[in-house]
Specification:
Four Helix Bundle (Hemerythrin (Met), subunit A); disordered N terminus; alpha+beta; 5-stranded mixed β-sheet; Nonspecific Lipid-transfer Protein, Chain A
């Protein structure tokens, strides 16, 4: 893997603390929604499906960190027995707590398998599981018909950065266009910005600005759920400049798989 710094202001211990907080919020929202509630941001899923997914991912990551696994671990092999639907929020809370404990106990020079660029394996797993949990917390809140809990600007900025610089440029990305175009993401309350060049090849993403065909400007705390497809353009203060129709490609083509 290639070392690449995360953005300044979100150190690993803070990521782990935020992961713990997001896990609590997720379990609480899921409990309020009920296991049978549908998850509008994950079509076809119920809250029970969401919780099973999150619990599996947390236990998978914990196994990798705790054992310093040098290869990807089979998530089903470490999943354990699933509780009844009514027990899923508590099961997810337990799994998140175990993950937080494993990350806190892991040495800074932890050597284990990971799958995207990061400062270190420990930093990777703290960051990836923070945003995995934060985004699915939004799913649980949407299922509960609740307002999305605001996050700190540094967390939102880092979550945008992970999506745009780590996930979006993968070869598997479906965001492609025969007619090339460029998106500029420009928070109004942060010095960060990102430029996404869309073409027939995988997206080319750089931190900073370039001439753009469409520009997203708004609070960084709203751009975070918007770009992760958990907030609609018409339901927030984000303003689209330029060719707004190009953003219609985003929701259907920017999706994230968990491995």
């Amino acid at each position: 893997m290639t070392a690449e710094p995360v953005l300044a202001g979100l150190a690993v211990p803070l990521m782990i603390d935020e992961l713990a907080a997001q896990g609590c919020l997720l379990a609480d929202a899921a409990g309020r929604a009920g296991s049978a509630a549908s998850v509008p941001s994950c079509p076809g899923w119920t809250v029970a499906d969401l919780l099973r997914h999150v619990g599996e991912v947390h236990r998978w990551a914990t196994a990798i960190v705790e054992t310093s696994a040098v290869e990807e671990v089979d998530s089903l092999a470490v999943l354990g027995e699933l509780p009844p639907d009514a027990g899923l929020p508590g099961w997810v809370s337990d799994g998140c707590a175990a993950l937080v404990a494993a990350l806190r106990a892991a040495p800074e020079d932890l050597a284990c398998w990971y799958f995207m660029r990061a400062v270190s394996p420990r930093a990777f797993w703290a960051r990836r599981q923070l945003h995995e949990t934060s985004v699915h917390r939004m799913d649980a809140e949407l299922a509960a018909d609740s307002a999305l809990t605001p996050v700190a600007d540094a967390l939102a900025e880092d979550g945008i950065d992970e999506l745009l610089t780590s996930f979006l440029p993968r070869q598997s990305s479906r965001l492609r266009s025969v007619q090339p175009w460029t998106l500029l993401v420009a928070p109004v309350d942060s010095p960060a910005s990102w430029s996404v060049r869309v073409s027939e090849d995988k997206p080319d993403v750089v931190r900073g600005t370039r001439p753009a065909d469409v520009v997203l400007r708004g609070p960084v705390g709203q751009l975070y759920p918007l770009l992760w497809n958990r907030l609609a353009l018409g339901a927030c203060d984000v303003v689209v400049g330029g060719d707004a129709e190009l953003m219609e490609q985003w929701p259907a083509n920017v999706t994230v798989s968990w491995s």
